[in-house]
């Protein structure tokens, strides 16, 4: 359990650092330019950041499985795409349930969902800023 918590905290910190770095660059771009191409570039930066976070946690699930923290309840062996798919579904808090972790990997899944919720909120704030920038108050 302690191993799963330590891995979760490390993944959380990496995810937060990478996302905030990307959002910081996106904020600076929005502050300089408000045209459609800049907004599209910012949108792609946000998408890339969320995909990177899903990939980080996907790697964490693979590592946790290899480390013996648990497995996934699926009849087939997990591939890198399965880890990424599960992570992407989990980080968005969608949680389809077609693949789910067992044992201590559930801790990582819970931390990932909380992380995803926080990061999506940060992204929403950036989109709000882009949409309202230039409006008179």
TrEMBL record:
Membrane-spanning residues: 42-63, 83-101, 107-128
Keywords: Membrane, Transmembrane, Transmembrane helix
Boundaries of every Potassium channel domain copy: 62-132
Signal peptide: none
Coiled coil: none
Pfam families (UniProt xref): Ion_trans_2
Protein name per its UniProtKB record: Potassium channel domain-containing protein
Taxonomic lineage from the root: Bacteria, Pseudomonadati, Pseudomonadota, Alphaproteobacteria, Sphingomonadales
